[in-house]
Amino acid sequence: MAAQRDIVSTARATYAEPWRARPRRKNRVAVRRQRKDTRAMNASQTRIQTMPWRIAPIRASFLQQVREQGRDDLGQPVEHHIAQGGEPCRDVLRRARPGEALILASYGPFSQPGPYREYGPVFVLAEASDETPNLQTRPWVGDSPYLGASFVLRAHSAAETIVDGQVVPQEQAEALLQAMLARPDVAFVLARFAGYGCYACRLERAEGAPA
Question: Are 150 and 196 in contact (CB under 8 A)?
């Protein structure tokens, strides 16, 4: 009798387990389909028309003031330095070469009064240069990029209030910038260095781009 029960139990296990497993296989198929649909949706969302943008040049009046008068945007005397190499030069949008003469001065990228108006240190070449910075370049690419491996993108409204801000790695910067500039409440985006939080550059829609 015991042997007969063992045979019946074995038969039930043999034939029952595949039927119990079927819902699991169906669930796995459903999960795979869901993941495929999610990937397709994400891909379609990334295939959007990119918005042209540019880097706004630093104010020419500021460069003239710090070089000729030795005063920054706060009326303070500027500092003169000899580059160690790697300092971010705001006027030419590149890293300084060792031995270059630099000016360190406080600069304000805002024009309207308010609680979000800020001033901060920037390096510029001590003497006017014939270099013409490429205002259409991506300042986070290259062997020694102007911006580092990660940095801050901060979106501002036309009233110069902060709308959004995120720390972003190089490989995600373009997508985040596009998303920010696509927002109707964003007028421009400021890039800042992640470590010290200093002003790096202003990114704005290119002329003719939709606002």
Answer: no
